Prior knowledge:
By secondary structure, the chain is α/β, with parallel strands linked by helices. It has 2 domains: about 5-255 and about 300-310, 3-Layer(aba) Sandwich (Rossmann fold); about 405-495, Arc Repressor Mutant, subunit A (Orthogonal Bundle). It contains 18 helices and 14 strands. The strands form 2 sheets. It has an 11-stranded mixed beta sheet with strand order 2-1-11-10-9-3-8-7-4-6-5. Helix 11 (about 330-345) crosses helix 12 (about 350-365) and helix 11 packs across helix 13 (about 375-385). The longest helix is centred in the C-terminal third of the chain and has 18 residues, at about 330-345. The model is unreliable at about 315-320 and about 485-495 (pLDDT under 50). InterPro entries: ATPase_Atu1862_pred, HerA-like, HerA_central, P-loop_NTPase. It holds the Pfam family DUF87. GO terms for molecular function: ATP binding.
Amino acid sequence: MSVMIEMGAGAGGAAVTMDLEELLATRLLVQGNSGSGKSHLLRRLLEESAGVVQQIVIDPEGDFVSLDEFGHLPIDAADYSHNEIAKMAARVREHRASCVLSLEGLEMDAQMRCAATFLNALFDAPRDQWYPALVVVDEAQVFAPAAAGEVSDEARRLSLGAMTNLMCRGRKRGLAGIIATQRLAKLAKNVAAEASNFLMGRTFLDIDMARAADLLGMERRQAEAIRDLQRGEFLALGPALSRRPVNVRIGSVRTSARSSSPKLVPLPSADTDFGDLFSGLADAPPPPPPPPAPRPTPAEDVLRALEAAADAPRASHSARVDLPELDEETRGRIVETALAGVVAEAGAQPLPVLYQDFGLRCRMLGLAGQPLDLPGFRRRLAMAKAGIGLEDVWEPALALGDGVPEDMLPVLLRLARAAREGAPCPTDEELAHIYGTTSTGRLRRVLTFMEEQNFIVTRIDLSGKRSVSLPALGWTTAPSEAEHEKPQARVARRR
């Protein structure tokens, strides 16, 4: 299910949109010289997708803490230890809370170590917490430098390894890396190369224009167009944006950074006398002491806030619309409809992605909140794949399914349905689709495992037709309509 967000206007004022679901699978690289509008672009992306997907921002300058208006929890990294930062990242992953990790108060070496700790904790979350999340890293050349700099080798190794994991292996864990850099030449190539979507802002150095043109599929002589871009204009390309490079002017935002571009102000008048500006320094009173630094928020309070953030309502700039209360029958129909839609488009996507899709479909159908927890959704999804409902007649099959691994439950329930109805045994291709694979060999290994554990008994007659029995239930399928490998052939192959 696609969710389109509007990034700005293209040629002729036409809206340029980004496919958020495609972005989660293909990642994004933003490049532009200082002042080209990268932070404005990232802010637009975050604001437009807030409330749709979890967002995690690694912020070296503290510019994005103002996103607390959208429910993002700010974390000032300077106040906490590495162990506390790792615990916060784990809590963020578990509770799907959006947050901004501000590294503003740290030296560059400490910034790299802290970012590595936070990203690694996100990456190491348990499989059942692999929910989709946008991980935005501003000034990515700091955390994934192309060459050694003034920081220690250990800090560079830790940070570069974490960034490489995010961009190269994060997709399977639901982490979609969005990195922004001033110069492509300063960014490690193995990190930049994993992005499939690009938003290229103005740049003037030949080496950066050449690399940007290569990524955009432009000829070198066309790279001059990158130099002519105005502030806030970007060339967009990628499966989530456009199949051909298009010019987009980024739209407005509702929050602002604490820092801004310098503006000219009038100088003192020409007749101002500065002759005695530095006179009487010895008799001048000492400057007042600086105000005490604010006391940092205890780590336990931040961890509790992360737990509460998942249940807190998102900030809204318009009146909230309360959905009508629904009776149990209507709620059940909506759940069944949403499950059917998920099954129709499931493919081989991980469970957390399907769970989020299910919740979104329920909201689109008028059902507020998440009607099923994750274990309940896993069970109902298996039932929907097998084509069985909530009738009492399926309780014995569901009880039997409690003993098989969770990923095998849809296959067992589909066999149980065919056996109870006396229908022909499903084909390997149908069972493989239900299991979430295109490999019939992998499906056969699943059937072999269930047979070894006495959940099923498989019989292939001399004509090659298969039937499956569930001894614990006393149910047996009719012989399959398609021929399977005959017993003699199986024995010969094993030899």
